[in-house]
Amino acid sequence: NLREGHAEGLPGALYAMTSPPAIYRDLAIVGTRIQESPSHGPAGVVRAFDVRTGRLVWQLRGIPGPGEAGSDTWTAEGRRNRSGVNVWSAMSVDAARGMVFLPFGSPAYDFHGGDRPGQNLFGNALVAVDARTGKRLWHYQMVRHDIWDYDLPAQPVLATIRRDGKPLDVVVQVTKMGLVFVLDRQRGTPVFPVYDRPVPPGGVRGEAAWPTQPFPTRPPPLVRHTITGSDLSEVTPESAAFCRTLFESVQGGQIYTPIGHERTLMTPGTLGGANWSGAAFDARSGLLFVNVNELPLVVSLGGDPDRMPTVTHYRRFEDEHGWPCVKPPWGSLIAIDLAQGEIAWRSPHGKVERLEAAGVPRTGVASLGGAIATAGGLVLHRRDDRSPHSRLRCTHGT
User: Fold this and answer.
1) CA-CA distance, 191 to 211, in Å (whole number)?
2) pTM, 2 dp
3) Which end of the chain is more exposed for a tag (fewer CB within 10 A), N or C?
């Protein structure tokens, strides 16, 4: 019973598993799905159990305690009874090295962090640990002080690429932001330079948004990070008019804009960029295949001014038909040359039959089903796992 020791006194709190355990030798390594709000509740913890005896072998807390590495990124009150910072997605195991890679989610509450100032490790960080002991080997945080629900949503990809004529083992993390982080598997250092860039300030009263965020130089962002009037959809005159009106009623439109009391346009949205569908790697070609969405979000915070703000408005940036208010493609399958950090090709992923019949082809659609790369050079991918017309498609990997 995974609630034992972590959620017994919270009978109404969400505590579940959404991904299978990772297996290393005789250990089953499990994460949890826990609440994203309110901010106080069960904490994220990764545990390894002996599959033969059921004995707990090790555990790693997503929020470090006093004196532990990363504890200085929290205040004492900020970490107290904090929920979130959990691994709900799939983990990856490097059996030869005895390493397991943990993609951590964001702290609760995931749209406001006024009661948790600081960088908030190990929130939104990829953490490598010794699979035998749970000892942290390295970590790399991809969003600091997350207030956009940009938790790491996908299984890390283990790949080998050639750099300077030599093989290099890497771990690759795709993100909701459409950023792809390629890290040296042994050391956790970026293969391509990553720069801290200033991001928009602001937010509601009490918020302490982090002033910078990391941006890899390669690969380039897989989705747009800014929305202006020239980015608005024009698939039909009616859609163009609706989207223009909606756009003029919101603020923001740039990645990492803190959410305010006024309706804020958040791009990318919480469905990505990339999401839990993750990525597939073809070792022969060195290509990483990722399906991404262009689904911005309109969100605002409010509520009792004497209490923590909560979301009072939440909707996709879509027209009356549910078509995104940005220019297509709204979903794409992208191939990345991992050794060079360059996009090899991209293709609209699916279509809207009604628009294609009206002469608007290749719009792409949102998708949450991932790709499979075969040794024969094919990529299998689902068009849209939310659609009643879902189907499996096949693309040549080149």
Assistant:
1) 24
2) 0.95
3) N
